[in-house]
Write a structure and sequence with these properties.
Elements: H1 5-13, H2 23-48, E1 55-63, E2 66-74, H3 80-102, H4 104-109, H5 111-115, H6 123-140, H7 145-170, H8 214-231, H9 241-258, E3 265-268, E4 271-274, H10 275-294, H11 298-302
Antiparallel strand pairs: 1-2, 3-4
Helix pairs in contact: 2-3, 2-7, 3-6, 6-7, 7-8, 7-9, 8-9, 9-10
Amino acid sequence: MYPRLSDIFKDLFGIQLPFPIYSFGAMVALAFLAAAWFSRKELDRLFTVGRLNAVRIPVTVEKGKRKKKTMQEVSPGELMGTITIIAVVAGFIGAKIFHILENLGDFARDPLALIFSTGGFTFYGGLIVAAISIAYYVKSKGLDVRTVADALAPGLMISYGIGRIGCQLAGDGDWGIAANLAAKPSWLPMWLWAESYPNNILQINLANNPVYPTSIYEFVACTLLFVFLWKLRKHPYESGWLFSVYLIVNGIERFMIELIRVNNRMDLFGLSVTQAEVIAVLLVVAGLIGLSLTWKRREAISSAVPATAHAV
């Protein structure tokens, strides 16, 4: 494993970088950039076809020797910088809060250690808090929240997959249960079935008890689901339909991977479940409700008002 990307440069090229580049942080940054790029493209497209209004942003213009700030109407895609910053800040706060809720025993013993540790983040916590924060910001700009949510859905899926590559490289404990070596198909490489995570950031020895590399499975699944959502982005249904589909496939994917993944379990109505399983089920339910509310075709509900394309 490579908790630090700088170690890869040393092994491959014999170059020792003067500063460490941590794998997880680098992949999270790449995940946010990928989500922002795909989301901006879709926001611009929705603006062009008239499904999103222009937004007003301050710009600096030169008038002679003077610079003056004025408001200009642009595509909502121009807001992706701010949306990404909100996602980063609110996402990390939410991820840390939900991780603390998953580990209340550790938090009671040493709260400062858990709060300020560089590890320990829960994806769903980040997703929920970031979604609420972004929805508030988008609404303040006069945009339809459901349409923007549709635009963000594919990018959210691929960003989660990229983030899991960071978990795989770092060996941060987001791995599976002990692998059943006897059940491994002969044609499958061992590293796709059982991984011991040498040099993992937690310094846990798994050499005698290799585990399922669930981060790889999630990366593959999320990449395929991203392609699926990207193909559906020009759907004819009401706004919010695609985001509802995202909630369903996201919930199913996470629930399935939890079946072979190591995680803290809790007792809920007599069932032994993980926090992620509970949230995954709630996301699927929310997605199904969303689908039932957005299944009408847009043409049927807006035929009297043809869409008008805007120019940036």
